[in-house]
Structure formats: structure tokens, C-alpha cells
Design brief:
The chain has 398 residues and is of the alpha/beta class. α3 links the parallel β4 and β5. It starts with a strand and ends with a strand. The structure holds L-homoserine (HSE). L-homoserine binds next to α6.
Length: 398
């Protein structure tokens, strides 16, 4: 029997307690019983069915030799970082959904885990309930991955879907996403793209084998997407989605970024709606692979955490399952150099001619024109519209 402690009884932490109960029969039948022994939180939850497991003192967990698994669902890089280091140092494997901590301090924590002969696992940090990391790290571990792009944030996908399919206002759609437990404690991380950026950093680190820092990834969120853009996108047979993308060159270069994109209806990702996530991976031998499922929410995320606990119990890992090395300055090249078609909506200045080489006029409103460009880099697109007021500029994925 294994004994686990959950740190942080928020949406995901309480989901882990529930999911462990739901899955108990299956885990026990497989001989991999996991008993939840403690829940650590500074708050009181007298009405919770798990009230008997509550403690405010992490030191109790740290000092209990029976506890071999610690689940960190506190979030952030403050106390969560400290408790993770202390748990690993005490010889306990740690499982987390905390993408900010993994993206920021992953290499250090994995090195500490390895040193102590335990594991630091974080399947739940990317894609919620969708097994993206184990697929990339293990199933596609031998594959030469050329590129991935995906819808990696459930909150923004939910907001965009509600706004544009059901006419819900941005602020109301965000409130709905918060009520459903999809968004981060501070939803700015969702809508400004930082959460997706951390997930791109984690996927890129796993694929490249060295830590890719979030600050190396150019990031834009969805606040600049206007209703007019959606109408124009629909004219082109496209949807608008927030994509995280990384392109791995044969020369070892990595170009990674997060931004809204137009996606043609012929591409499966354009049909990934609401809280669902989708990850499209292009490998040299395997070709195209796509993963799809619930990208956020209490039980899907908890399910990914319990899957890590199950792997720990079943495979009795000592050391690495997910791994990458230290960050190296200069690992990431300028993602703006990637060429693509662009959708650009702009207010023309005096003297601007509607017909322009390399630009196809696709829509005309009272004060703005919208164009689809030929394939070009970001710098070339910006040069094409130099001196104009650009309202929106989104890549069109193909
Ligand atoms: N806030 C995140 C999202 C939670 O909306 O995708 C799951 O990582």
C-alpha cells in the first residue's frame, strides 16, 4: 500500500481526493492501492467529507515515513516550490499540475528527484486530462518531432467558443469559465497567453531535452480578438483559436510562440471547442498525430494526477520518467522568422492603395480593410503595412 498527501485543497486538490476514491477499486484490484492520508491547507473545510484528513502543517507530512507520494496542487512558484523541494529531499515522489513551477524550475526539481532516487511527475500540467506529456516523452520519445501546435488553454478556448458560437460577451464567458473551475487563480494568465506559454515551454523542454524558459517564448493572448475578426475569419472558412506552437529545425533551432491564429475548417483543431484541448504533432517518421480531450477542470486534471500516482505505484520508478537538462541561453531563435500567410485588419492611412502586391483584400468595413497575405515572415508582414494602423494581425495555420 502507498500513502499520499495532497498539498492544496482547491479545485484540483479536491478533485484528486475524489478521483482517488472513484479509482480505488481499480487501483486495489491491480494491487496498486493508494490511500490518501493527509490533505494540507491553511484553510478550514469542516463540511468536507475529507475533513478528517486535514492538517495545516506540512511538516507532519514531511516527517511521516509512511507517506511516499506527495501531490502538489497549491500552484505558483512560492510555497509550492519550497514544499516540493522539501518533499523530494525527504525521499517522497512529487506529482503536480503546477505548470508555472514545472516550466520555471523543472530541471532543478527533476535533478533533485533523481538525486534522491524518487520522481517528479507532472502529466497534469499540460492538457488537463489528455495524456500529452507521456505521449511525447515516451511513445514519441524516439521520434524526430518537427513541429507541434495546439489549443493548450481551456479557458480561452471556452471563452472564444462562447463568444463566437453563442454570442456571449467576453466578460460573461470568462465568469462562466471561472465558475466551472477552468481558469487560473488569476485569469490574466489564461487570457494573456501565459498559461499556454508555460505549456509550450514544458512540451518544448521535453522534446528538446533542455529547459526552454517561458520568457524565451513570444506570447500574445486573446484580448485583441474582435468580433469583426471572427466575421472575417468565417468568410475565409476559418475559426480563430489561441495556439501554442514550436518548430524544431534540423539545425537544432527552436522557434516557439503563443498567439491567436486563423485555422481553416479543413484542419481538425478548428473543431476543438469549449474547454477541450487539442495537440497536433508532426513527426518525421510517424507523420501527423493528434491528441484531444478535456484540457482543464477538476476531475480531468485530477485524473492525470492519479495516472502519475498509478505509474509510480505500478512501475516503482526510481528517478526520471520525464526529464530535461538545464536551460542554455540562445536555445530559442526568433519565431517571427517563420513564414505563413497572415490575416491583417487595418485602418488605411491617406494614400494607401486598396490593391497591394502579395495582399488579397478579403473584407471592407467603414473604417477598416482586411487582407490575407502571401506566405511571409512577421517582419515582412509588418513592412507591408508600415505606416498603417494595424488592428489585428494573426497567422493563418496550414
Ligand atoms: N487555466 C488552465 C486552462 C487550467 O484553462 O487550460 C488547465 O491547465
Amino acid at each position: 500500500m502507498h500513502y499520499a498527501a495532497v498539498l492544496g485543497f482547491g479545485t484540483v486538490g479536491s478533485g484528486v481526493a475524489e478521483a482517488l476514491q472513484i479509482n480505488t477499486g481499480r487501483l486495489t484490484a491491480k494491487g496498486e492501492g493508494i490511500t490518501l492520508k493527509y490533505i494540507v491547507d491553511v484553510r478550514d473545510f469542516p463540511d468536507s467529507p475529507f475533513a478528517g484528513l486535514m492538517t495545516k502543517d506540512f511538516a507532519v507530512v514531511e516527517a511521516d515515513p509512511e507517506v511516499d507520494f506527495v501531490v502538489e496542487t497549491i500552484g505558483g512558484i512560492g510555497i509550492a516550490f519550497e514544499f516540493t523541494k522539501r518533499a523530494l529531499t525527504a525521499g517522497k515522489s512529487v506529482v503536480t499540475s503546477n505548470k508555472e513551477l514545472v516550466a520555471t524550475h523543472g530541471s532543478e526539481l527533476m535533478a533533485l528527484a533523481k538525486d534522491k532516487g524518487v520522481s517528479y511527475l507532472f502529466e497534469a500540467s499540460v492538457g488537463g486530462g489528455v495524456p500529452m506529456l507521456r505521449t511525447v516523452a515516451n511513445n514519441l520519445g524516439s521520434e524526430n518531432i518537427k513541429e507541434f501546435f495546439g489549443i493548450l488553454n481551456g479557458t480561452t478556448n471556452y471563452i472564444l467558443t462562447q463568444m463566437f458560437k453563442n454570442g456571449v460577451a467576453f466578460a460573461d464567458a470568462l465568469k462562466q469559465a471561472q465558475a466551472m473551475g477552468y481558469s487560473e487563480a488569476n485569469p490574466t494568465a489564461d487570457i494573456e497567453g501565459h498559461d499556454a506559454c508555460r505549456k509550450v515551454a514544458i512540451l518544448s523542454s521535453l522534446i528538446s531535452g533542455k529547459q526552454i524558459k517561458p520568457e524565451w517564448i513570444a506570447t500574445r493572448g486573446i484580448t485583441g480578438v474582435a468580433l469583426e475578426d471572427v466575421v472575417n475569419a468565417e468568410k475565409l472558412g476559418c475559426t480563430i483559436k489561441l495556439l501554442g506552437r514550436a518548430v524544431f529545425g534540423k539545425d537544432g533551432s527552436i522557434r516557439a510562440y503563443v498567439a491567436p491564429h486563423l485555422i481553416p475548417g479543413s484542419i481538425l483543431l478548428s473543431h476543438v471547442e469549449d474547454v477541450m484541448n487539442g495537440l497536433f504533432i508532426r513527426g518525421e517518421s510517424v507523420g501527423d498525430v493528434m491528441l484531444y480531450g478535456a484540457g482543464a477542470g477538476k476531475l480531468p486534471t485530477a485524473s492525470a494526477i492519479v495516472s502519475d500516482l498509478y505509474v509510480l505505484a505500478k512501475d516503482k520508478l526510481d528517478g526520471e520518467q520525464f526529464a530535461w537538462g538545464d536551460p542554455e541561453e540562445g536555445s530559442c531563435s526568433d519565431a517571427g522568422e517563420l513564414e505563413s500567410a497572415w490575416y491583417v485588419r487595418m485602418c488605411p492611412a491617406d494614400g494607401w492603395k486598396r490593391e497591394q502586391a502579395g495582399l488579397e483584400l478579403i473584407a471592407e468595413a467603414e473604417e477598416s480593410l482586411a487582407y490575407r497575405s502571401a506566405e511571409m515572415s512577421q517582419a515582412a508582414m509588418e513592412a507591408a503595412f508600415a505606416g498603417q494602423t494595424v488592428l489585428s494581425a494573426f497567422r493563418i495555420i496550414k
